[in-house]
Each structure stands twice: as C-alpha cells, then as structure tokens.
C-alpha cells in the first residue's frame, strides 16, 4: 500500500498531475478514455483507479480486502484539498478550515472527468466516510504519508537525518489531529487506524532490526500527557453524519507558531481528553477480498466485494518478521 501511495505522490507537482508521465505509463493510461487523459482531473482519476486496482490485486489474505480503503480516500482527499483551496482562492494556512466534504469536492472537481472505472462507487463499502471533512482527511494523509515514508525508506536502507526525524513528525501530527477531532468517534477510529499501521511496523523493527537508532526513535504515539490510545485494526464502518462530528467542520483549535501542520493545537489537551475515552476499544469488522497481481495493464472493472461482515473477536496477530501491510 505505502509503495503505491508514494508512487502516486510522485506523479504530482502540488495539485497538478504530470500528464505526460501519466500518458506514457500504459498501465495507468489504460484507465483513461479515448486513448489518453486530456485534463488534470482525468489524470487524477486514472491514477486513483490504478492505485486502487493494483492495491486490491496485491492483497493475498482475503479477510484483509477492505482493511485499508480509508487510506486510499485519505490519499485522494490530499489531492482534492489542494485543488479545492486553489479554486476558492484560499491558502492552507495554520488553522484554516471550511465545511467542504470529500463527497462535495469529488462532485465539484472530479466526477465529470470519467475514466474506465466508476471511481467513487468502489468506496461504497465505507460510504459514510465520503461525508468526512476534506481538510481533516487531507491532514490524516499527512500522518499516513509520514508513516509510509518511514516504512519504505527503512526497507530501502535510508539512514539520513530526515529519515530519523519522521517518527517525531508522526508524533507531532498525531497529537495535533487528536486535539482537533477528539469529539468524533469515527475520526478517532481513523486516527488510531493509522496508529495501528505505525505500531505494527514499530513492533517488527523492535523485534528484528539491527538499526538501534531507529528502534530508539520509534516511540509510541501518545497524547500530550503520555496517555496511549488503543490502535484500531481491521475493517471499520464510520458515522460522520452525527452532530458531534459535524460540529468539528467549522473551525480548528488555535495554532501554535511552531510546527509544520496546518492543524496546530492549543494547549487544551486535558480539556479535550474529557470528550472521548482514550482507552476505548472500537469494534472491528471485516470484509471479504480477493486477488493477485497481474503484469498486464488491468481491465478497468470494479473488483467484487462481499458485504457480509464478520465479528472481530479474534485477537490481534503478532507481526511477522517483515511488516505484512498490503503493498504492490
């Protein structure tokens, strides 16, 4: 998954996709209509379809087929948010927030630019998440992007100062997100779904890696007072439509002067903790999956999904010797 998302990022210069690069790649271009993508928006749709299909084909354990769909929506939200603020003449300054949802942004900017896969319906299994705030989803992707860079750079042998700074950046973004979304259970589940990815990788490294510096840097993701919330794993359903979640779409907490995140916290961690229990253990439900990778350009057809959900009473598996996140 991480390799695909970061590969997708490599096709972008801010909000614009490299159309020449898209059309030169026969696999991605295969999702374009009429022999090629003509607009930036069509290129984004084709690239999203490519990432979705390649990711699904890489999943070998059927019960994990829909475990990471949220991550794909975070990736898409990051791109849509950059388009959105440019179209409305705004800048992503610290504390900026508007009420635009992912679904609204998709309809406004991408829906009419058809490609060979009906893009948004493939995420109907987590349909309510489409009503998530676009800004927050883009901020979730900033955390996911950092986690993915740690994972992929580690396996690529990176040892730069920037690489060793990623865990601290993850901690900073995790805390900031919590302070802004703690009243909404579904947003907390999203946040701690990312924590689960981080924790699984960290566990593998601490058990098996000779890289002592990274082992030291990979500290637990906690709140400002050191409290650790439970990680979320497996398939989840979401409810963004309730009043607590919608109330968060109007403003963010007052920013600090330091840090890179545009969702900067005030020093109100203790107050915000009263809104939700950090020891809450969300239910985990799972969906069925499929498939294996193919070298030829994929047929732009939606993969089958099964709607039957299974119980999540099975305890979390110990991580394998190498992180078993789905990847291409």
TrEMBL record:
Region: Disordered, residue numbers: 246-328
Cite the InterPro entries for this sequence: Yir_bir_cir (IPR006477)
Question: Membrane-crossing residues?
Answer: none
Give the compositionally biased regions (Basic and acidic residues): 270-288
- Name the residue ranges with Basic residues bias: 246-259
Q: What is this protein called?
A: Plasmodium variant antigen protein Cir/Yir/Bir, putative
Native source species: Plasmodium chabaudi adami
């Amino acid at each position: 998954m991480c390799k695909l998302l970061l590969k997708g990022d490599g096709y972008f210069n801010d909000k614009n996709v490299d159309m020449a690069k898209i059309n030169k790649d026969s696999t991605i271009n295969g999702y374009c209509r009429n022999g090629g993508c003509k607009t930036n928006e069509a290129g984004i749709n084709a690239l999203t379809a490519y990432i979705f299909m390649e990711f699904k084909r890489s999943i070998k354990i059927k019960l994990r087929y829909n475990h990471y769909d949220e991550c794909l929506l975070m990736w898409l939200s990051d791109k849509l948010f950059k388009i959105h603020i440019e179209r409305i003449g705004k800048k992503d300054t610290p504390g900026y927030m508007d009420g635009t949802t992912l679904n609204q942004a998709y309809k406004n900017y991408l829906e009419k630019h058809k490609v060979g896969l009906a893009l948004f319906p493939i995420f109907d299994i987590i349909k309510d998440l489409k009503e998530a705030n676009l800004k927050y989803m883009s901020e979730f992707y900033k955390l996911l992007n950092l986690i993915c860079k740690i994972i992929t750079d580690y396996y690529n042998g990176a040892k730069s100062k920037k690489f060793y700074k990623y865990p601290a950046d993850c901690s900073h973004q995790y805390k900031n997100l919590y302070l802004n979304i703690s009243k909404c259970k579904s947003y907390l589940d999203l946040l701690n779904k990312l924590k689960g990815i981080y924790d699984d990788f960290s566990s593998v490294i601490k058990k098996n890696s000779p890289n002592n510096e990274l082992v030291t840097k990979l500290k637990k993701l906690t709140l400002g007072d050191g409290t650790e919330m439970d990680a979320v794993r497996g398939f989840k359903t979401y409810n963004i439509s309730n009043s607590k979640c919608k109330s968060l779409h109007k403003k963010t907490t007052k920013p600090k002067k330091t840090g890179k995140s545009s969702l900067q916290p005030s020093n109100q961690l203790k107050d915000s903790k009263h809104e939700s229990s950090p020891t809450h253990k969300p239910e985990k439900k799972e969906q069925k999956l499929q498939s294996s990778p193919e070298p030829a350009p994929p047929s732009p057809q939606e993969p089958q999904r099964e709607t039957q959900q299974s119980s999540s009473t099975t305890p979390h598996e110990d991580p394998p010797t190498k992180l078993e996140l789905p990847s291409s």
